């Protein structure tokens, strides 16, 4: 029986088999369908946005690349001699990373990961989205304390998507009964594969700072992009 819930992994495998035009369809409750060209998941360091290049420069010690996908960030770090572990839920992605020579690869849900500690947790491509919602963010910030070495850091990318609710006159229209506006529902499709609906969190930096501080982290914004996306460093207060 074929696994039909690994669209990212299936698309990555097809791309590596020669389908250079492969793309993953992304459905959301917020916008029209979008597509991720699989080629983008294999970008080189030179092709990476400035935010990602800065994040890689800021990595220190042992690194856990969370939601590593096709492994482009892990490959750069490994080539630099960094001790990096690439983590992803997708079996197809994990296989592709192993085939590309990434030495330490884990097929695992970060919320179930235990018994290991790292100096840096790296979450790029809006990686903090795995928290799902604000309640999940609290869970994430508590769980990552068990994964960080003393003085460890989380480097994460997210976006403030308030601009998506702006009217033509510049006002913002929000449904105050619908919860936090950055909680989005996605489904990803590729051929016969689809994830099914899952929640993904986009969090504005001011709210992230509030949550980080409440859970014992310092907050530092390292970069702000043109479209509301940013890179932040959360560091555990030294005991």
From TrEMBL:
Coiled coil: none annotated. One of its GO terms (molecular function) is methyltransferase activity. SUPFAM superfamilies: S-adenosyl-L-methionine-dependent methyltransferases. InterPro entries: Methyltransf_25, SAM-dependent_MTases_sf. Pfam families: Methyltransf_25. One of its GO terms (biological process) is methylation. The keyword Translocase does not apply. Keywords: Methyltransferase, Transferase. This is Methyltransferase family protein. It comes from Pontibacter ramchanderi.
